[in-house]
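Working notes for the structural subgroup meeting. M.R. asked for a predicted model of this chain before we commit to crystallization trials. I am recording the input and output together here so anyone reviewing the notebook later can reproduce the run.

Input as submitted:
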Amino acid sequence: MLKYYLIENPLAKEEVNFMALVSSPETKTLNDVIDVMIAEGTGLTRPQALAYFEKLTQTVLGLLKDGHCVSTSLFRVRPTIKGLFTSSDDSFDSTRHQVNARFLPGEKLRGLSAEFHLEKRDIATYQPLVKKFTDAATSSVDSTVTPGGIGTVNGKFLFFDKNDLTQGVFFVPVNNPEIAVRAVVYSRVFPKELSFVIPMLEPGDYRVMVKTKPKADLLNSLLIKKITV
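Returned structure, recorded in token form:
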């Protein structure tokens, strides 16, 4: 089941429209993939599955290093070069250019869209999750803030209406939780990242609070991170 919810498109400049965000319950690792591959009845052992995966990986990497494009039913990948050249006589310079691999879905991935079962969820069911606060002036994480500087909060379900003064990023003094100082100026408001000007705070320890309000009768908030001015 593919679960998704809608948020207002922050890049829309004229008419209001919405974009869908998929809510992934968790990220599966290679070990999880191997577990499925060696499930009862498949006839594969873990060492065999790992060996097959490693052989496929090294084969694809080797072909790319030789300059080939690789096309399979699952994916297509080709080497590309990023960066601009000053003239037709210019050559690759590792300080200005970079070799990348560009991946595209193969026919099986392209055809998968018809097999998804979708479920639309109310954004109100998602509690904001703050994972990290970064102070740009000091490059510190979850430790200090610079009043008047730029702060960034990373997490999930952080999108909010910045015109609603009850929503946003708030700094709450640890010793006086009744006071909450809101960040007013925001440069990025996205579901996974908020960037803003840190308000003028008095010295002391604070917690970062992210408030969202997807419905008039519901206020999601999460207190985290002890930080010091």
